[in-house]
């Protein structure tokens, strides 16, 4: 049978003509030109149709069926007859009421109604123009792709002819020329979200680069953003996926430090080494850090300055109203000696509530309720005022914190994240903490939020639902508001005798230089009371078949030790209020079995890589992530892990 | 140096905006792509047009390329999808032209007959259903059954079945002609 095919093949090979050289050159030139255009134009608006009077009339005429048209014209004639001819006048005034008039009129309204409805539908299709800021590149590329070849279902293109004209013309330029009566117009890309992320950590070869240094990250914003994308039926932007934030969203039950019995440090690291779920030949080094949970009664009084964005864009149900409800929830958990102030910022910033004791609920609630959205956004003016207020409120050993709630826009004043960063860094020295809460989607400036939280001794969370507000502001109130260790840095040195290659999963935005570890001036993440932080390395033991790099021929492998340890973990942190750091050191070696907590975090790490970049996952799929997470849900009193499994399922169906 | 870089590396470089990489990648793949397009469409003219479509959209499509798959596999998938779209477009055009009356259809039939008599095999391939033809076009390009299955998004068994169907059909056609 195969001979048949070979025959066919040789016959066909003779039959195939050589490509036309001229067309070949032209096609390649076209592709190169499109390529160049695309490089410069990813941020540009995409072409859209704009309805004109003539198009509308045409649509109306097209949608008029002959039956409807007949009824309408008959009705017009009938009306004309009624009003213009003497007989009609007589009928109207007269003794005999017109029987067919109401029916005719009714039909007419029905037809008009249909046309109206139709207009309304087409109106909705074209998005309203919004100033272009930074188009989301991936999204844009995806749309381009839709326009260009495959997608014949682009919703905004209505008739097949229009669509085809369009698809063909994309090849020449991004703007389709006027065809027929359809005038395409440039409408800006409405989605202006930006995300902070870097390329995933590459695989490192232990003999060349044995030390890995990073700062802890207790933010949870990435997980909420992923969730909000998935529940809206879209795969999240890969840049929105910061794997460490996905992992650290969940509370883990690691061994807590035994401070009462003379434990020196406010947190305790646990290292666990086990087989990688997605690769039997590598191992995961799982580093869990559990912060102590001081007795809640002992906590110092809190000074909270809510800095609330009341710009026009906040006027959406999932923004200002959700924010109000969230803060109301939080208020119930404050103690009478805590103090609350509210600064709002739009075009200018105002103090909506002077420092008030948390016991005075009615005043605070009234101020919250009175908040209205309108105007533009001057982020920095508000920040300055909030920090000034926080400093004014500070006394004794109070913990002062500015809580910034925004949908992400800082479009008036100092909007360059780096300018803000320097400002916040200065303010960090005053001891005031900063939490950034993101609300709403579509314009979320994740990069700015991250820059603020990372430089201002704080955390960033994204609040998409009231239950997320409950988690961030109520369940984790103590952890979110009371730091137990500042500038926590992790440094791991791997032993080249036992580990050939290693790779840190996540923490891309938190990488530190090797020398930064001992430099107390370099900022790092804060650990809140009761918080747990997880970091996972995938390591390839020497001699494992999974090793991706080959040994060098001309350089002797210099292994100075014959120790069995896999590596050496160093942690540095500062006790809040102190300037010098303390050191925790521990070697790790054992290959054990993962406990529920570690296995669940591994499942989330895998899930994050599936969403982001699955280069190292082999054939591991969502299915595997789901079963691993399901098997390790543990007690899960708040249902977070159950929710994660649901998200994995969603992602699984959406990715197909 | 460049000539030795793998297709996949070139594609990744192109994704990051390297125009040089994109140009050399396309130059390298063009002839092979054209030959596949020819097998998919059957006439030189259509093949040139289809290749043009693909070239025009390739820069934008490139964003969807991922390192895991071989570049040729990915490119063939793009080509097969583009051929599908073209056929669909063509079909709706034919449908729209239906109203022109039988004389037009007859005229077109005569035209296409004379044009296609040139090569038996191509005519025979044209007579195959689109599915069978796509499969055959891929396998005739030294694709393994597994790769063809991956490109078409069907199972390997289906590929084998389609091939045997195509073979059966071509055989019967040949026998008819020999008689």
Could you please describe the fold and organization of this structure?
The complex is a heterodimer of chains A (656) and B (179). Chain A is an alpha+beta fold. Chain A folds into 4 domains: 1-41, no CATH class; 44-192, no CATH class; 204-294 and 484-548 and 560-655, Immunoglobulin-like (Sandwich), CATH 2.60.40.1230; 300-453, von Willebrand factor, type A domain (Rossmann fold). Chain A is 39% helix and 20% strand. In chain A, the strands form 4 sheets. In chain A, strands 9-8-7-10-11-12 form a 6-stranded mixed beta sheet, sandwiched between helices. Chain A has a 5-stranded antiparallel beta sheet with strand order 3-14-16-6-5. In chain A, strands 4, 13, 15, 17 and 18 form a 5-stranded antiparallel beta sheet that branches. In chain A, a hairpin with a 7-residue loop joins strand 17 (567-574) and strand 18. In chain A, helix 18 (596-612) runs antiparallel to helix 19. The longest helix of chain A has 26 residues, at 100-125. Chain B is mainly alpha-helical. Chain B folds into 2 domains: 1-99, Rna Polymerase Sigma Factor, Chain: A (Orthogonal Bundle), CATH 1.10.1740; 119-179, Winged helix-like DNA-binding domain superfamily/Winged helix DNA-binding domain (Arc Repressor Mutant, subunit A, Orthogonal Bundle). Chain B is 79% helix and 0% strand. Chain B has 9 helices and no strands. The mean pLDDT of chain B is 78. At the A-B interface, helix 1, helix 2 and helix 7 of A face helix 2, helix 3, helix 4, helix 6 and helix 9 of B.
């Amino acid at each position: 049978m195969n001979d048949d095919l070979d025959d066919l093949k040789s016959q066909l090979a003779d039959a195939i003509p050589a490509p036309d050289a001229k067309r070949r050159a032209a096609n390649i030139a076209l592709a190169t030109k499109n390529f160049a255009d695309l490089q410069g134009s990813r941020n540009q608006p995409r072409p859209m149709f704009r309805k004109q009077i003539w198009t509308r009339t045409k649509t109306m005429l097209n949608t008029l069926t002959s039956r409807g048209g007949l009824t309408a014209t008959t009705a017009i004639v009938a009306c004309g007859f009624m009003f213009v001819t003497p007989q009609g006048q007589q009928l109207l005034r007269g003794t005999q009421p017109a029987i067919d008039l109401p029916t005719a009129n009714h039909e007419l309204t029905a037809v008009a109604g249909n046309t109206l409805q139709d207009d309304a539908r087409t109106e909705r299709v074209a998005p309203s123009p919004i100033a272009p800021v930074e188009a989301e590149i991936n999204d844009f590329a995806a749309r381009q792709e839709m326009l260009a070849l495959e997608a014949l279902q682009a919703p905004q293109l209505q008739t097949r002819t229009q669509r085809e004209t369009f698809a063909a013309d994309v090849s020449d330029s991004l703007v389709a020329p006027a065809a027929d009566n359809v005038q395409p117009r440039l409408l800006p890309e409405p989605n202006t979200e930006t995300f902070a992320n870097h390329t995933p950590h590459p695989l490192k070869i232990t003999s060349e680069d044995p030390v890995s240094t990073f700062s802890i990250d207790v933010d949870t914003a990435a997980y909420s953003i992923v969730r909000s994308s998935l529940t809206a039926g879209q795969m999240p932007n890969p840049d929105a996926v910061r794997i460490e934030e996905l992992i650290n969203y969940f509370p883990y039950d690691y061994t807590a430090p035994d401070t009462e019995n003379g434990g020196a440090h406010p947190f305790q690291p646990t290292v666990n080494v086990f087989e990688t779920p997605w690769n039997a030949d590598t191992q995961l080094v799982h580093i869990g850090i559990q912060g102590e949970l001081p007795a809640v009664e002992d906590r110092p009084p809190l000074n909270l300055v809510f800095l609330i964005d009341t710009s026009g864009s906040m006027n959406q149900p999932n923004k200002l109203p959700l924010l109000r409800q969230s803060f109301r929830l939080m208020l119930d958990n404050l103690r009478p000696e805590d103090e609350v102030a509210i600064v709002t910022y739009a075009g200018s910033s105002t103090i909506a509530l002077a420092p008030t004791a948390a016991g005075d609920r009615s005043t605070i609630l009234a101020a919250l309720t009175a908040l209205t959205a309108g105007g533009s956004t001057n982020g920095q003016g508000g920040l300055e005022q909030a920090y000034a207020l926080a400093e004014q409120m500070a006394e004794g050993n109070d913990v002062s914190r500015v809580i910034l709630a925004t949908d992400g826009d800082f479009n008036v004043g100092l909007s360059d994240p780096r300018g803000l960063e320097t400002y916040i860094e200065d303010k960090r020295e005053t001891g005031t903490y900063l939490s950034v809460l993101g609300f709403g989607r579509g314009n979320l400036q994740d990069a700015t939020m991250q820059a603020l939280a990372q430089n201002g001794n704080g955390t960033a969370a994204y609040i998409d639902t009231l239950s997320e507000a409950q988690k961030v502001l109520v369940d984790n109130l103590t952890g979110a508001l009371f730091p137990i260790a500042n500038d926590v840095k992790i440094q791991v040195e791997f032993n080249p005798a036992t580990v050939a290659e290693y790779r840190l999963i996540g923490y891309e935005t938190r990488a530190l230089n090797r020398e930064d570890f001992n430099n107390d001036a370099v900022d790092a993440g804060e650990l809140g009371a009761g918080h747990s932080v997880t970091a996972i390395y995938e390591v390839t033991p020497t001699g494992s078949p999974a090793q991706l790099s080959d040994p060098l021929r001309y350089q002797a492998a210099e292994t100075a030790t014959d120790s069995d340890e896999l590596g050496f973990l160093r942690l540095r942190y500062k006790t809040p209020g102190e300037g010098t750091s303390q050191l925790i050191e521990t070697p790790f070696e054992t290959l054990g079995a993962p406990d529920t907590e570690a296995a669940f975090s591994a499942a989330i790490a895998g899930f994050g890589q599936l969403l982001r970049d699955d280069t190292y996952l082999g054939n591991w799929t969502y299915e595997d992530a789901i079963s691993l997470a399901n098997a390790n849900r543990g007690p899960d009193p708040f249902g977070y892990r159950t929710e994660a499994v649901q998200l994995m399922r969603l992602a699984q169906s959406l990715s197909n | 140096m460049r000539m030795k870089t793998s297709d996949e590396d070139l594609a990744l470089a192109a994704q990051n905006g390297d125009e040089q990489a994109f140009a050399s990648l396309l130059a390298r793949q063009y002839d092979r792509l054209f030959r596949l397009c020819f097998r998919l469409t059957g006439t030189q003219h259509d093949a040139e047009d289809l290749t043009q479509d693909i070239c025009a959209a390739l820069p934008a499509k490139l964003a969807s390329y991922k390192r895991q798959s071989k570049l040729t596999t990915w490119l063939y998938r793009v080509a097969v999808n583009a051929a599908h779209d073209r056929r669909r477009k063509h079909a709706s055009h034919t449908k729209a032209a239906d109203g022109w009356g039988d004389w037009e259809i007859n005229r077109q039939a005569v035209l296409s007959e004379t044009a296609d008599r040139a090569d038996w095999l191509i005519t025979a391939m044209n007579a195959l259903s689109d599915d069978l033809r796509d499969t055959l076009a891929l396998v005739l390009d030294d694709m393994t059954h597994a790769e063809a299955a991956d490109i078409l998004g069907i199972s390997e068994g289906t590929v084998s079945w389609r091939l045997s169907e195509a073979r059966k059909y071509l055989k019967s056609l040949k026998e008819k002609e020999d008689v």
